[in-house]
Amino acid sequence: MIKAVIFDLDDTLYDYEYSHERAMLILRDYCVKKFSISVEYFENSFNKAKDIVKEQLGNVGASHNRMLYMQKFLEIIGEKSSVYALELYNQYWNAMLETIETFDYVMPLFQKLNNLEIKIAILTDLTAHIQYRKIKHLGIAEYIDMIVTSEEAGREKPDKKMFDLIIKKLSLKPHQMIMIGDSYRKDILGAEAAGIHGILYDKKEDNVIIKQCLEMIKIESEKE
Ligand SMILES: [Mg+2]
């Protein structure tokens, strides 16, 4: 019997790629104007900053922290991070959060899971603070029973530690859960290695996910 469905957040509940690209353009235009630099210099310096932060930290939640990207970027272009880092961070996230909205399948599926008294959880790579802000902006906070971020777990998907933590927090057996996510390697292989059923989400086929999820719930309930 399925008792919980765990969702990835970025590119599974909303279009991360679209919102991120839009926010990066707004940040780029802001920096080009503010620091009188070229688009190319902005892009090279920002990408370099991101690479350095990721390399320094490895696969942990903080490696996605935009505040660290802004700080390193400002260090590279020779501007004071103490003056500008927070401003750039807010430029990016405000632009990003303004545009995010749930994919079409999300609210109908959440309603159905609620009716079936199946718990809804989120298992996501990134820092807790910003993922909580996204959940609020998406208007789904009331539906979510449990959240685990990679910042909390100290590891990123597909590390088993992430999955073990959500299993423990939900007090369920792995086979009582379904994981839905857009990354085959992180979400599906990670879930299956922990004994959780996996369903790959593809935003180009948004309409099939409800059917797939309800079918799996039905198959699992008939097994008992
Ligand atoms: Mg994702």
Automatic annotation (TrEMBL):
MF term (GO), any: metal ion binding
Keyword Magnesium: yes
Domain of life from the UniProt record: Bacteria
Keywords: Hydrolase, Magnesium, Metal-binding
Cofactor: Mg(2+)
Keyword Metal-binding included in the entry's annotation: yes
GO-annotated biological processes: small molecule metabolic process
NCBIfam families: HAD-SF-IA-v1
Name of the protein: HAD family hydrolase
